């Protein structure tokens, strides 16, 4: 963590990153802007996730939240259809974003048709309260990762698959769209077993009424995974597995996306990444003919 430089005062009022992309929503490719807010550090330490290393000691307060959002949505410019407010933790985690800043961000983001925030299932009550204030606008991305309690424990997640699906169902009943993050590629599993576990998780999502998933191929971005990789116990999944997982999710009738944001070093070739983008925009997997993908 000490390797991450402390930002200057000016930088502290800027988001980490702003990314524009097209994504399928309500039957059409819509403009989405993803804003990676500069916030307080995630207090969790999940084995596969290095987001806590980008967090700060103090939570984000209203003043800096306003400044960061003005950078992301400059006054006088056209708004994106959807705005993803990601904070490298849970949006409703007060150690990352103060409640007054959460309120301010949601109020201003509600000028867009869709607001997407990430949350741990433990904050379901806060998500429900927010949805009551901004009905039909809020989408909550809930990190399921894997629908297996033993694996959740090993990964450092303090929830169970049952608790996860119960929260997701409650949010859906309240009119909140839910997207589940599902990991592909866990340490200690060979590629076939890692894919199988991902497919089982996708099947559990479909059975438990989750309509929308983002498949996250893992990368060796944390010390634990780098060590596992050095031992030969972990390798990022090949694109063949990524597309096999996406195909299965589509066959299960899930709105499917592939999220390559863990991969600061590109995964697959340009052509493979274009296929991922096409899937995210259209909800269908184009025909594949790429040397990266084995049939
Ligand atoms: S997966 Fe979520 S809860 Fe776990 S460390 Fe990363 S940001 Fe925190
Ligand atoms: Zn390729």
Structure description:
It contains 10 helices and 8 strands. The longest helix is centred in the last third of the chain and has 17 residues, at 191-207. Helix 7 (191-207) runs parallel beside helix 9. The relative contact order is 0.11. It has an 8-stranded mixed beta sheet. The protein has helices spanning 9-12, 62-72, 99-109, 124-133, 149-155, 161-173, 191-207, 223-231, 239-251, 270-282, and strands spanning 17-25, 28-36, 82-86, 114-119, 138-145, 177-184, 212-217, 255-258. The protein folds into 2 domains: 1-119, no CATH class; 142-295, pyruvate-formate lyase- activating enzyme, CATH 3.80.30. By secondary structure, it is of the alpha/beta class. Residues 42, 44-46, 49, 51-52, 88-89, 120, 143 line the site of iron/sulfur cluster.
Features:
single chain, 8-stranded mixed sheet, alpha/beta, pyruvate-formate lyase- activating enzyme, 10 helices, binds iron/sulfur cluster
What is shown here, in short?
By secondary structure, the protein is of the alpha/beta class.
